[in-house]
UniProtKB/TrEMBL annotation:
This is Chromosomal replication initiator protein DnaA. ATP binds at residues 148, 150-152. The gene is dnaA. The keyword DNA-binding applies. Oligomerizes as a right-handed, spiral filament on DNA at oriC. Domain I is involved in oligomerization and binding regulators, domain II is flexibile and of varying length in different bacteria, domain III forms the AAA+ region, while domain IV binds dsDNA. It is found in: Cytoplasm. It comes from Luteimonas vadosa. Residues 1-82 are annotated as: Domain I, interacts with DnaA modulators.
Length: 440
């Protein structure tokens, strides 16, 4: 079956890596006469592939297999008897009529997740959940934070670790949109019993981006029941959300409190050192040689999220490959010029002052004034520390921009804010939100 790997290669170039990993890689292909049969491990994968990729797959098969005929079915290729592993306990239980096969992307593991201050707790929580799935100490586990910070990575890592220690474990990964569309379809087809049963049969449910349920009352209600059934059955639930559920408008109060009833852990944007380490680790993973100064350059300029950082690295690697040039700092500056400029331009000191003033409900002139009341002094320090963190300006330049303050005042502000981030949860939250706002 040569055509499918070639199609997959093309699809990998056309769609985001995470989507390819979640939906296309789990497919198994075989030939039946003129038809390419694609086996999806479960109904979620089948539906997603049918709705989003099938048209393109047909075109590619027409090209590579000589016939666009394709049948998309739930199932798997029969494994050769000689190498079939002995069934683990529970492995043979049916899932939607076929042996359960998860749709976890095996690429994401704890080993290739770079740990730093921003994600240490999240990593530990996911790891513990994987060691003792269903344990009340971390069930449900909710990982929340901004986009592209590694929540899905950790979720997959936990699922993969569960299956590594117990291959019979039925772990299902579902994006919230899919839960929604599968439910709508089940409602239309009056097949809700089957829909519900799918979830009762899993040992762990990983559900991504639950903020998507906001404003969708019927879906929330259904999810609420699914959630309770899993929870009562001591099945592990891991969820991600782009913010703490209490802050998501349009989620029902009882669901909000249920979601946060186990262990909820924030994933914050990584600091500079962690960003640099991530670049090095991703480069090593893909076999790209990247000098330290280039990793530092990327880490310094690309603060908003790891996905963009990875994107920049991929662009560099592709360009180096294409031109045959080595990746040097000059090459990186040149190749990523527009990208780096765009990041740079959006963040100036004036912009930071305005964003911080708006955030705390102040006027810019208050922020710049000499008044030292705490309600002004703290936001002012936050703004100065942000200017140091997010721009290239020196301490004296930042001091100047804050109504001619001395550089030692700025330095003191930076230190103070760094210390407070360790001890003051509210300040840490403000800081991360502001970084996110400014990096958008
Ligand atoms: N600490 C880390 N170490 C290694 N890779 C990381 C780390 N953090 C993020 N990544 C990588 O960044 C990319 C985006 O991460 P991921 O998809 O998990 O983000 P997310 O938080 O789930 O975002 P979203 O809310 O947009 O779905 C992935 O390729 C992931 O491997």
């Amino acid at each position: 079956m040569d055509a499918w790997p070639r199609c997959l290669e093309r699809l990998e170039a056309e769609f985001p890596a995470e989507d390819v990993h979640a939906w296309l890689k789990p497919l198994q292909a075989t030939r039946r006469d003129d038809t390419t049969v694609l086996y999806a491990p479960n109904a979620f994968v089948r539906d997603e592939v049918r709705d989003r990729y099938l048209e393109r797959i047909r075109e590619l098969l027409g090209h590579f297999a000589g016939s666009p005929e394709v049948a998309l079915e739930i199932g798997s290729l029969p494994r050769p008897a000689a190498i079939a592993p002995a069934p683990a306990p529970g492995a043979a239980r049916a899932f939607g009529g076929v042996e359960f096969q998860g749709n976890l992307d095996g690429h994401y593991s704890f080993d290739n997740f770079v740990e730093g201050r921003s994600n240490q707790l999240g990593r530990a929580a996911a790891w513990h959940a994987a060691q003792k799935p269903g344990d009340r100490a971390h069930n449900p586990l909710l990982l929340y934070g901004g986009t592209g910070l590694g929540k899905t990575h950790l979720m997959f890592a936990a699922g993969n670790a569960m299956r590594a220690s117990n291959p019979g474990m039925r772990v299902l990964y579902v994006r919230s949109e899919q839960f929604f569309s599968a439910m709508m379809k089940a409602l239309q087809e009056k097949a809700m019993d089957g829909f519900k049963r799918q979830f009762q049969q899993v040992d762990a449910l990983l559900i991504d981006d639950i903020q998507f349920f906001a404003g969708k009352d019927r879906t929330q209600e259904e999810f609420f029941h699914t959630f309770n059934a899993l929870f009562d059955g001591r099945q592990q639930i891991i969820m991600t959300c782009d913010r703490f559920p209490r802050e998501v408008d349009g989620l029902e109060p009882r669901l909000k409190s249920r979601l946060a009833s186990g262990l909820s852990v924030p994933i914050d944007p990584p600091d500079f050192e962690t960003r640099a380490q991530i670049v090095m680790s991703k480069a090593a993973e893909r076999g790209t040689e990247i000098p330290e100064d280039v990793a530092f350059l990327l880490a310094k300029k690309m603060r908003s999220n790891v996905r963009d950082l990875e994107g920049a690295l991929n662009t560099l690697a592709a360009r180096a490959n294409f031109t045959g040039r080595p990746i040097t700092e000059e090459f990186a500056q040149e190749t990523l010029r527009d990208l780096l400029r765009a990041q740079q331009q959006s963040i100036g000191i004036a912009n930071i002052q305005k964003t911080v003033a708006d955030y705390y409900g102040l006027q810019i002139k208050d922020l710049l004034s000499k008044r030292r009341t705490r309600s002004l002094a703290r936001p002012r320090q936050v703004a100065m520390a942000l200017a140091k963190e997010l721009t290239e300006h020196s301490l004296p330049e930042i001091g100047d921009a804050f109504a001619g303050r001395d550089h030692t005042t700025v330095l003191h502000a930076c230190r103070q804010i760094r210390t407070l981030q360790e001890t003051d949860g509210k300040l840490r939250e403000d800081w991360n939100k502001l970084i996110r706002k400014l990096s958008e």
